[in-house]
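To illustrate the input format used throughout this study, we show a single complete record. The first block contains the structure-token representation of the backbone; no residue identities are included at this stage. The design step must infer an amino acid for every position from geometry alone.
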């Protein structure tokens, strides 16, 4: 560790990092990010990086936005903290809840605030169970998620997540959490099977799973409109329509996890609007504050909200909540963040820049390592393969993706390696030349990976 500077050494000594190999980290140390400006961040050595992941899929308005810092400071000076327990409230939480419901054109009726997407999905599990108890259906408690879906890291939300790394040696998933197949046509579609036929097969498999478990035991189905951390997986055409039809047939709630896709990421306000999803429950976080403050939200339609409220009257309380639920500073920052998104037309801008991003990355599809370029709006994934014709993955899986992640830093580009898929999710404020710069830097990264895998 002699090559590490003092700051890196102290990090290695004192901090356990999420999603990090702690043994490797002792040797390599961290890249210490010191400041951010627009779509760029700078490390403590002054090196600039184009942040093509918007932090963690989340910094919509870019780094260093003074209006958000000012909004936080104003609220800190007025009411730095208060809770929303036992009939207490405050203006920022009230205004934000109203705005979120209005953003759904009244399809949702109530908002429950949390501090993160993980807490929000943990809350969803409890709400689904509470709702069915309220309706006198104590056996209707199973929740179906998807392989490679991502819904968080608390005990309940990590159980919903369909990634082995989030389960292994954490003794997860919990009972009553089931997983159905991942909707990735490129990787799992059969030879000659169209996207629509593949979607039909997945819906039939979901139907069979519900029948096998017993419809009176299955409470909800949860999915991201477009999968993020599982590899930026865009569902096949007609998928969501067919999945929802199965859920409605069996009185199974539809939960849309919009933690990544909400607030313009796919070129409309919500991913549900893009893909035709009519959820009973919607989960929001990340871009709600551009991650300047921790905040999540669970939106309930009237059917669910009314049953939950009535049951709290029967029991005497709704016995769930967090110290910082609806935190005044977080909700004030969210309001200003949403003001910026609306005033600057960032959703429309994201739709335009998303088309350019997909176009620029598709131009790299002929590279020998590129198996599939996929995405929607300002989120994209490039899957690297050992053989294009057979779609054979690398062995070990993740070998190429991990190297691409490392080499991108050398080209001043921050991406994410998900197994052998390289993910892109830049801030909504990105401009055309910056989109093209992502593609140029990634092209250079691909050449580095090609030399590496060639030996």
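Output of the design step:
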């Amino acid at each position: 560790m002699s090559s590490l500077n003092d700051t890196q050494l102290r990090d290695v000594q004192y901090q356990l990092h999420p999603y990090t190999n702690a043994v490797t980290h002792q040797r390599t140390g961290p890249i210490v990010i010191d400041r951010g400006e627009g779509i760029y961040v700078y490390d403590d050595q002054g090196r600039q990086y184009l942040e093509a992941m918007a932090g963690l899929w989340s910094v919509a308005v870019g780094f260093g936005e003074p209006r958000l810092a000012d909004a936080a400071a104003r609220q800190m000076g007025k009411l730095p903290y208060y809770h929303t327990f036992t009939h207490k409230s405050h203006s920022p939480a009230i205004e934000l809840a109203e705005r979120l419901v209005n953003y759904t054109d009244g399809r949702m009726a109530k908002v429950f605030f949390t501090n993160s997407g993980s807490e929000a999905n943990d809350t969803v599990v409890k709400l689904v169970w509470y709702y069915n108890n309220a309706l006198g259906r104590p056996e209707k408690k199973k929740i179906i998620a998807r392989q490679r879906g991502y819904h968080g890291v608390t005990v309940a939300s990590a159980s919903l997540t369909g990634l082995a790394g989030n389960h292994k040696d954490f003794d997860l998933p919990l009972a009553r959490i089931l997983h159905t197949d991942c909707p990735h046509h490129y990787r799992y579609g059969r030879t000659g099977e169209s996207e629509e036929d593949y979607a039909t097969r997945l819906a039939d498999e979901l139907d069979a799973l519900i029948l096998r478990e017993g419809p009176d035991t299955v409470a909800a189905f949860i999915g991201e409109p477009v999968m993020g951390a599982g590899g930026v997986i865009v569902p096949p055409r007609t998928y969501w329509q067919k999945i929802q039809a199965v859920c409605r047939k069996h009185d199974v709630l539809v939960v849309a996890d919009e933690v990544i896709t909400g607030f313009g990421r796919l070129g409309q306000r919500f991913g549900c609007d893009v893909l035709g999803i009519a959820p009973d429950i919607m989960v929001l976080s990340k871009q709600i504050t551009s991650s300047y403050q921790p905040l999540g939200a669970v939106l309930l339609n009237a059917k669910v909200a009314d049953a939950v409220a009535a049951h709290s009257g029967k029991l005497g309380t709704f016995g769930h909540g967090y110290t910082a639920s609806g935190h005044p500073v977080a909700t004030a920052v969210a309001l200003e963040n949403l003001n910026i998104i609306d005033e600057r037309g960032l959703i429309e801008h994201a739709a335009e820049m998303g088309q350019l991003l997909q176009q620029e990355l598709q131009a790299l599809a002929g590279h020998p390592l590129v198996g599939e370029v996929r995405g929607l709006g300002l989120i994209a994934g490039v899957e690297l393969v050992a053989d294009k014709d057979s779609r054979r993955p690398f062995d070990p899986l993740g070998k190429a993706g991990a190297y691409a992640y490392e080499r991108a830093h050398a080209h001043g580009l921050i991406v994410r390696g998900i197994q052998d898929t390289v993910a892109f999710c830049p801030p909504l404020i990105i401009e055309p030349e910056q989109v093209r710069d992502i593609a140029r830097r990634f092209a250079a990264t691909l050449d580095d990976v090609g030399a590496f895998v060639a030996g």
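Structural context for interpreting the output: Residues 432-453 form the longest helix (22 residues). Residues 132 and 316 are 17 Å apart (CA to CA).
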